Amino acid sequence: MIELTGDTLTLQEAKDIIYNHAAVRPSAVSMEKVKKSREAVERIVKEKRVVYGITTGFGKFSDVWIDTENVEELQLNLIHSHACGVGESFPEKVSRGMLLLRANALLKGFSGVRPVIIERLLDMVNAGIHPVVPQQGSLGASGDLAPLSHLVLGLLGEGEVFYKGNKVDAAYAFSQEGLEPVTLQAKEGLALINGTQAMTAMGVVNYLEAEQLAKQSEWIAATTIEGLRGIIDAFDEDVHVARGYQQQVDVAKRMSHYLSGSKLTTKQGELRVQDAYSLRCIPQVHGASWQALDYVKEKLLIEMNAATDNPLIFDDGEKVISGGNFHGQPIAFAMDFMKIAIAELANISERRIERLVNPQLNDLPAFLSPQPGLQSGAMIMQYAAASLVSENKTLAHPASVDSIPSSANQEDHVSMGTIAARHAYQILQNARRVLAIEWICAMQAVEHRGLDKMAEATRSFFNLGRQVVPAIDKDRVFSKDIEAAAKWMEDDLLSEAHS
């Protein structure tokens, strides 16, 4: 059971909850803060104070007074009117992450919701009831209004949810689990949707899967080094310490470890003096991607435990401030940076694929074909990889440099952070398939060279791979192999067999 405080959620805990379905509960201390914050809201309503979103309308309607008897209707109208998401739904794991992160933010005690709101959000997490949330429609400020509105529909017992592998009505899932939908009271609708939890949940999923892919990329690259009889000297620690980037040093150290004892690697001058950059510069390029991922990790850890509501309630309601913590710019930048980092792992992988299949660049059978000419072998796998990396270059265009004013120019600068996070996820799927293709080609190459000559570590990785994709002994529908390898790489997030 993982306890949420609003301040201490880690990526490992988020991973356990999102992927392993660990149970979660709120901290008793944090819930006391929530109760005090709620009491402040109720005083504001009773005293008929003018406070944005509690006794006023929203956005451009912030100057419109709402009578006390209408504050509950105001919150329900807010959710219904803002549920304008369109397109395909977020993956279920992202919806689960959104529930988790929204509850964690409310537990900070600055939002003025009743404890039952947080309890029900966590009930949904523990019962595996995940709202169906359309991906498109968020500007990333004032928070993820449209996606989070769809999330709240589930809380209200409306709309659709993922439940036990199916899409069902939220009311049905609640009845099956013995849960009661909530009725929103003053401020609660606004508190639930004014935040960055769609982009951040997508970002957390992106980071966890990108981190695993970056690890796998090194194992795959090490196998390619053996398949191409690469020069081991390039990973000498002195070279990388001389430059000074720790992530570069770490990649070189791991590559040297994976290739330790290999009889397929060479020394400089033995076969050639230098390798191509896609082999020789693995620590520099992969290391730079790790630098970007470290930046992303830092920002996500902050945002996962951030108060992103508006307004925020301080000093038992004596200070209620309308600010802009819902603005997703920090996560928008982080997701755009991640897009570039993961796209580059795929770019350099595609260049290694070319070196594996091009007979003008190696001494392997042309296109790794068992019968060059009669059978095409891996020829079109390289085409597919080239197509994917080209698509990634388009997706890597930064979303965060764009902004369109909304709410009659009241909300005149927005982050587009959710678009950045969604595109990062697409790039991640493409990159995983590119690396899957490299893995298939690298395994074929080392098999040609002689498995008995491989390093112990890479041979172990090869053996895992051959359980997923058999050797190419004749042409077949290689799409199935690519997808099988990519699926294994995605599922390996849970096993961490090669961390």
From TrEMBL:
Modified residues (2,3-didehydroalanine (Ser)): 142
tRNA processing keyword on record: no
Pathway field: Amino-acid degradation; L-histidine degradation into L-glutamate; N-formimidoyl-L-glutamate from L-histidine: step 1/3
Keywords annotated in UniProt: Cytoplasm, Histidine metabolism, Lyase
UniProt xrefs under InterPro entries: Aromatic_Lyase (IPR001106), Fumarase/histidase_N (IPR024083), HutH (IPR005921), L-Aspartase-like (IPR008948), Phe/His_NH3-lyase_AS (IPR022313)
EC number(s) reported in the record: 4.3.1.3
Family to which this protein belongs: Belongs to the PAL/histidase family.
Protein's name in the database: Histidine ammonia-lyase
Naturally occurring in which organism (per UniProt): Heyndrickxia acidicola
Organism classification: Bacteria, Bacillati, Bacillota, Bacilli, Bacillales
